[in-house]
Amino acid sequence: MYTTPIFVSALLALAQAAQAAPSLATKMHMRRQANCTNVQVFVARGSLEEIPGRQGKLVDAVCKDISSCGSTDIQYPATFDAYCKSVGSGVAFALNAVETYAKACPNSKIVLTGYSQGAHLMGDVMSGAGGLIPNQNCTQAKTAPLAAAAAEKVMAVTLFGDVRHTASQTYNLGEGAAKSGILPRNGTQLDGLNIHSEKIHSWCNGEDPVCSSGNDMEQHLTYFDQFTDDAAAFIKTKL
């Protein structure tokens, strides 16, 4: 499989970071609930991260002071190998999980959050997906957007270092807001995401090689040191 230098550098940097970063999985699994909650956060981790990954900090911040708040981890490989199958399986899992939860818990408010490959995944959940991913020389399976009844329950979507970051969208934040990433959205998929623009914030650092075609991999690894409080505050304004 053909792999760009960006994906190679991302693989090495994220692998090293995953080994160094403490896992929040135990803490987060304790919070995960099978029953309906007032607020449920669906989390799609970044490539090579252990569940729940860096976004555990964000879920902690969102759920603080909310008495009935839970999280659901999107189950998918989160690998660079067989990238199309990895992200495609995550989209399929997320669509089913969110739609099933929204139907079972009609009074719950839903939040979607994704980082890196997980941001690609969560954006595709809202926009619809499918097509050639030239950087990995593979084709992602076609999927429809999240069903309208479930999408109405989604109050907020936060994306960080999105593989599919597209320049100059109204919901873009950070120094990379005017830049595009590895696989920018276009056409009907961009239109599908923009239907939900008022619910979305997408952070991209200016030299992040994944979302803004930059040259500093460190900028891809620090979103939750920089923007956790801002993201949590945004989410809470939507609940």
UniProtKB/TrEMBL annotation:
<keyword id="KW-1015">Disulfide bond</keyword>
<dbReference type="InterPro" id="IPR029058">
    <property type="entry name" value="AB_hydrolase_fold"/>
</dbReference>
<dbReference type="InterPro" id="IPR000675">
    <property type="entry name" value="Cutinase/axe"/>
</dbReference>
<protein>
    <recommendedName>
        <fullName>Cutinase</fullName>
    </recommendedName>
</protein>
<keyword id="KW-0378">Hydrolase</keyword>
<keyword id="KW-0732">Signal</keyword>
<feature type="signal peptide">
    <location>
        <begin position="1"/>
        <end position="20"/>
    </location>
</feature>
<dbReference type="Pfam" id="PF01083">
    <property type="entry name" value="Cutinase"/>
</dbReference>
<dbReference type="GO" id="GO:0052689">
    <property type="term" value="F:carboxylic ester hydrolase activity"/>
</dbReference>
